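Example record

One chain of 180 residues, shown exactly as stored in the release files.
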Amino acid sequence: MNIALMSHDRKKELMVQFCIAYCGILSKHTICATNTTGKLVAEATGLPVSLFLSHAHGGSQQIGARIAYNEIDMVLFFSDPQSNDLDADLNYITRLCDQYNIPFATNVATAEMLIHGLDDAAAVGIRAVSSCGVLCAAVRAGRHRTCARSGRRPLFTLYGTDAGLQPGRHASVEPYLSAI
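Predicted structure tokens for this chain:
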């Protein structure tokens, strides 16, 4: 998954501590971040982090564009509720995540739930299911970023023995989810 990291100035240290704590899980994914947050995380954890511009120079817009093009799968934006200086950026990213159905955390508790969900999903072999409620073999195989039938981005795809599932064919998600 492609995970974007962002944080208000007073939450940067918290983001660094979070990334140190979950470095093992984050190392299995592609991380990108706004400039200062990304540098701090990379220095503290040794994780490779793709850097965008700082928020003041358009980093939020760069991440927003990646969200709109289905290139970001999760956003962790640790916000300071007492700060008003980045409200426009926070609202912008929040709206995009809601519009494009991207998991989004603004605090440590929610971020931990998302990260544990990633780890648990990997443990049982879940990788992605289409948001239209069907499993697309082409999405499952990683050949497409969106479902060919619905045009929607995948939520997660199932790996394992998908009996009878062939590329380009869809199957109901319920049998797969009820088996988990």
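Notes: Helices lie at 12-21, 23-26, 35-45, 59-68, 87-99, 108-123, 137-140, 174-178.
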